[in-house]
Design brief:
- The protein contains eight helices and four strands; from the N terminus they run αββββααααααα.
- It is α+β, with helices and mostly antiparallel strands.
- A four-stranded antiparallel beta sheet has the order 1-2-3-4.
- Strand 1 and strand 2 form a beta hairpin.
- The radius of gyration is 27 Å and the shape is elongated.
- The termini are far apart.
- This is TerB family tellurite resistance protein.
- InterPro entries: DjlA_N, TerB-like.
């Protein structure tokens, strides 16, 4: 039998680990709320840094350097790398998704659909489904008018730099956290708003192309999805 194997070997190793080892003393340097991969939901966390020490008989005696930082879940007590904080909480993700759908709806309406009752109905229904329960057609129409007054832009014009920036600000942070079907769903919602009152106008296509780019959907896939949206299911 190889040394260290079997009941006697395991007992010797256990005795040695009690005599000698490394202990880590953790210090909290921050806290907050995050999405815990271990729990699968929003939890409180502490951000910890640690100092390792060589221990004899369980008593720390010699420093072994720093470790961390890590994120400790207050519920399951598991430790994770700090990159886990890059993932939005469920609450934050829902807010990002609502804002994204709302911004896309305004962009498409401003591109040519705000005068159409059908487009406004489709837009309002999509925004309500995303979480803005009290959204109305009148509110969307008023927001588009305010947007045009603020930018000097007129309905039916191509997507301006200012509107493109707003789309990217709403969609860029969200895109990495959405699977391809989720990103495509947002684009298709915009396409349905544009198609509610007839074929795409050049300005609507331009706005939807900007939406696709912000969602990191390649140009060929944007073209395919916009064509598919025109085909009745």
């Amino acid at each position: 039998m190889l040394p260290g194997r079997g009941p006697n070997g395991r007992s010797a190793a256990a005795r040695l680990s009690r005599l000698l080892g490394t202990r880590t003393a953790w210090t909290a340097v921050g806290d907050g709320e995050f999405f815990c991969p271990g729990c699968g939901g929003d939890r409180n966390y502490q951000r910890l840094t640690g100092h390792r020490r060589f221990a004899l008989l369980g008593v720390p005696v010699l420093p072994r350097g720093g470790t961390g930082p890590v994120v400790e879940c207050a519920a399951c007590r598991r430790h994770f790398g700090t990159d886990v904080l890059d993932h939005p909480t469920t609450t934050r993700f829902s807010a990002m998704l609502r804002d994204a759908v709302h911004t896309v709806a305004l962009a498409v309406l401003a591109a040519g659909g705000t005068c159409s009752r059908a487009s406004l109905e489709t837009a309002a229904a999509g925004v309500r489904a995303a979480g803005f329960d009290d959204c109305t057609q009148q509110q969307l129409a008023a927001l588009v008018e305010a947007l045009e007054a603020d930018t000097g832009r007129f309905t039916g014009e191509p997507c301006t730099a200012g509107l493109a920036i707003e789309l990217h600000e709403a969609l860029d942070p969200l895109a990495p956290h959405l699977a391809a079907p989720g990103r495509e769903s947002i684009l298709l919602q915009g396409a349905r708003i544009a198609l509610a009152d007839g074929p795409y106008t050049p300005a609507e296509r331009d706005a939807l192309a900007t939406v696709g780019a912000a969602l990191t959907i390649c140009a060929d896939d944007v073209t395919r999805l916009l064509a598919a949206a025109r085909t009745p299911s």
